């Protein structure tokens, strides 16, 4: 009774979303697995699962996510439908998935209710904390408890998350602590011939990278590099500006105000033995710079608007990570890296200079990088388990 009342209140509160036009591509023939990720960070683990389903089982996969996701072969990308009864029916009528996997803990009541009415098997994976759509605050008696009771399996990342799901109404027998799922590799591509050529030029020089450096953090990078040069006079700073248009004025500032020898990638200049700052104003070559720089500072995280690049990118390629107090969209990722002692937090330009100086010791940078790499590569056995559950359920076991 409470569940029905809560669902009614919820649907009445969301009538403003009714009637939105949705463009859906044709449904592929045969079986279809539906995965849902509430944000781009969670989508990484769903993308790895999707890759396995596509490559190993030959199944088309529908992934719904409100964030922009780059296309992959065999993967159908859609934004989730408005959470109203009419849109939920239209969505499930069109896609008719064989199984649905939600993640993190996001609950879409209209969609989940319609899925349950159709007896569609629904699983929760990578569960952290159950919640009804963030923008749907309100009092809906019994709604969360009733929705959670419909999940066949609730796989959580730790025991605290499991307790949260049990307390909120998930079946005790359905909840299981499995840990994190494996994520799609964040390792960016590069041209190996280019890397080899630059590595020969740099030889044994110490190198650090400021990735997507915003104008607001240029002074911090200058301060850190100036201090670190006293410890390692052959140190090279590679800067990829957030805004490529900043390359020219930044090069002039560093050459004129600091007296440094500066080279620019876009001018086909090479970082020779005299170069102290190399401005790589091409955002398509991060895979190259992460491989060449043993230390990476994540631009935007210190005094900008929030970290701009995914910290798992350098982590996957063996670069030790420095970051400030503004994680931006990557708070959960930095939390994982911090818990694993796989990244170094700094709170000010002075802290950045001190941390950089400390990591110029190769063994310290290597320990940090190794721990970061381990964060990017764990969870394969959990994804194996989820993959097997999908196979068993879809095969009727």
From TrEMBL:
Cellular component, GO, one term: plasma membrane
A GO molecular-function descriptor: Kdo transferase activity
Source superkingdom: Bacteria
Known catalytic reactions: lipid IVA (E. coli) + CMP-3-deoxy-beta-D-manno-octulosonate = alpha-Kdo-(2->6)-lipid IVA (E. coli) + CMP + H(+)
GO biological-process terms attached to the record: lipid A biosynthetic process; lipopolysaccharide core region biosynthetic process
EC number, as in UniProt: 2.4.99.12
Signal peptide feature range: none
TM stretches of this protein: none
InterPro entries: Glycos_transf_N, Glycos_transf_N_sf, Kdotransferase
Gene3D superfamilies: 3-Deoxy-D-manno-octulosonic-acid transferase, N-terminal domain, Glycogen Phosphorylase B
Main localization, broad class: membrane
Stretches assigned to the 3-deoxy-D-manno-octulosonic-acid transferase N-terminal domain: 27-181
Keywords linked to the UniProt accession: Cell membrane, Lipopolysaccharide biosynthesis, Membrane, Transferase
Family indicated by similarity: Belongs to the glycosyltransferase group 1 family.
Functional summary from the UniProt entry: Involved in lipopolysaccharide (LPS) biosynthesis. Catalyzes the transfer of 3-deoxy-D-manno-octulosonate (Kdo) residue(s) from CMP-Kdo to lipid IV(A), the tetraacyldisaccharide-1,4'-bisphosphate precursor of lipid A.
The protein, known as: 3-deoxy-D-manno-octulosonic acid transferase
């Amino acid at each position: 009774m409470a569940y029905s009342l809560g669902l009614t209140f919820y649907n009445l509160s969301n009538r403003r979303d009714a009637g939105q036009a949705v463009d859906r591509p044709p449904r592929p023939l045969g079986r279809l697995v539906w995965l849902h990720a509430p944000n781009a960070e969670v989508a990484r683990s769903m993308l790895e699962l999707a890759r396995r389903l596509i490559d190993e089982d030959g199944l088309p996969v529908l992934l719904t996510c409100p964030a922009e996701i780059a296309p992959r072969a065999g993967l159908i990308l859609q934004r989730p439908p408005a959470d109203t009864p009419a849109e939920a029916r239209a969505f499930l009528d069109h896609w008719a998935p064989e199984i649905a996997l939600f993640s993190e803990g996001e609950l879409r009541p209209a969609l989940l209710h319609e899925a349950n009415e159709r007896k569609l098997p629904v699983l929760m994976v990578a569960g952290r904390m159950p919640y009804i759509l963030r923008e749907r605050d309100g009092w809906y008696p019994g709604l969360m408890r009733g929705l959670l009771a419909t999940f066949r399996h609730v796989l959580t990342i730790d025991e605290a998350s499991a307790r949260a799901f049990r307390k909120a109404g998930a079946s005790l027998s359905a909840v299981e602590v499995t840990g994190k799922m494996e994520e799609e590799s964040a390792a960016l591509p590069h041209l190996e011939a280019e890397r080899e050529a630059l590595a020969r030029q740099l030889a044994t020089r110490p190198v650090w990278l400021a990735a997507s450096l915003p104008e607001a953090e240029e002074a911090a990078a200058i301060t850190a590099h100036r201090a670190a040069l006293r410890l390692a006079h052959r140190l090279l700073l590679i800067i990829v500006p957030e805004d490529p248009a900043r390359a020219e004025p930044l090069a002039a500032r560093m050459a004129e105000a600091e007296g440094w020898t500066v080279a620019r990638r876009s001018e086909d200049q090479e970082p020779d033995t005299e170069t102290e700052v190399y401005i790589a104003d091409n955002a398509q070559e991060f895979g190259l710079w992460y491989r060449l720089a043993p230390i990476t500072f994540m631009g935007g995280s210190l005094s900008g608007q929030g970290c701009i690049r995914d910290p798992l990118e350098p982590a996957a390629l063996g670069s030790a990570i420095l970051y400030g107090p503004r994680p931006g969209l990557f708070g959960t990722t930095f939390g994982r890296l911090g818990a694993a002692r796989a990244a170094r937090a700094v709170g000010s330009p002075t802290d950045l200079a001190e941390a950089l100086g400390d990591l110029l010791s190769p063994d310290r940078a290597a320990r940090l990088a190794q721990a970061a790499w381990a964060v990017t590569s764990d969870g394969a056995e959990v994804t194996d388990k989820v993959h097997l559950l999908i196979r068993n359920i879809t095969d009727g076991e």
